[in-house]
Task: structure prediction
Amino acid sequence: MQQLSRTFIVASLAIASLAVIPTGAAAATSDRSGFGAISAEAVNAEPTADDLAADGGPAVLRAQILLDRANFSPGVLSGRTSSNMRHALFFFQQEHGLPATGDLDAATYDALVARGGRDDAVVRITLSARDVRGPYRWIPVGVYDQAEFECLCYASALEMLNERYHTITAVLTKLNPSIYFGDLAPGMELWVPNVTPFNVREPYREGRTRAIAKIIVNKRGRYLQALASDGSIVFHFPTTVGSVADPSPNGTYSVAAIQWRPVFRYSPGLYSDVPDWRQNAKLPPGPNSPVGIVWIATSRDHVGIHGTPLPHTIGLASSHGCVRLTNWNAAQLASAVRPGVPIAFVSRG
Result:
C-alpha cells in the first residue's frame, strides 16, 4: 500500500525528473539537446539525429508523446530516457519491423510519426473555472486519516494537470516558464503534451480499439501487454509488480470484474510489512486512492490490476502483489477489456 500524500508527490515529481544527469561525453550533447533545452517551440521542432540520440530533451519528450499516442506507453512524459521508455521503444520497433534495440533513432522516429501523426507534440490549452476550482484538498499520509475523507481527490490544480496530460511538474514548468503554478486562474493559457487527456471525472475512454484476447504481465520486465487474437500488441504499459516478500502470482488467471472509482479496503493482514494487529479501514475513491481510479479484479483473490497515486514510480517500485499502472493507462485498459479475458503472469525477460 502507498501511504504518501499527493502534496508530497508534487515536490517529488520535480526531484524525480532530475534523477538522470548525463556526464562525460553525453554531457556535451545535453548542453544542446538536454532537459534544459525543453521549450514548447523546441518540442514542436523537427529533431536532428543528434537530438534523437540525447539522453533527454525536446526530441525525447516529443518521442515519448508519440509513443503515448501509439499506445506504447513510456509511463510519465518526463523528457528523459528511462527503462520504461526503452521497453516501449523495443516493442514498438519489434511490432513495426525495425531492429529492436530500444534506442531512439531516425527510422524509429519516422515510424512513430507515421503512427502518431504530425500534429504538434505540445499544444495550448485554456484553463476553465472548473479546472481551477477543483475540489482540491491536501491528503494526509496516514491511512486512518484518509479514511475520514469523502474523496481522495487531487491536492491541487497542478497535480490534476500533471495527470491529465500524463506528465510531471518539471516538464510543465519548462513548457510554461512564465507561469506560477501556485496561482492558476481561469482563462490562463498553458502549453501541454498533445495526448488524449485523462479526465478523472469521466475516466471511461470511448473509442475504437482492437479486441483484447489476452493480457501478459511480465514480472521481470515490469510491463503489461494487452494482445489481440493474432498476438499483436494493442497496449504496452509499464507496470509495478509484487516484491520478493509479497510477490505477484505465477500462472494464468482471468479478468473477473471491473470497478470504477473503487473503495479501497485496507486489510493489514494481507501485507508482509504491516503489523496484522492494525485495524482494517475503508478508504474513499479518487485519483489519490492506493488503487487509483479503477480496479480490474482478477480470478486470483486479492490481486488486481489498478491505478496508482504515484505515477512516477511505475516500473521502479514494488507492490504488495497487485499490478499497478498509471491512472490513465489503467483507464485505457479497463475501457477496452472484458471479464473472462485471460491474464498470464510470466517471469521471462
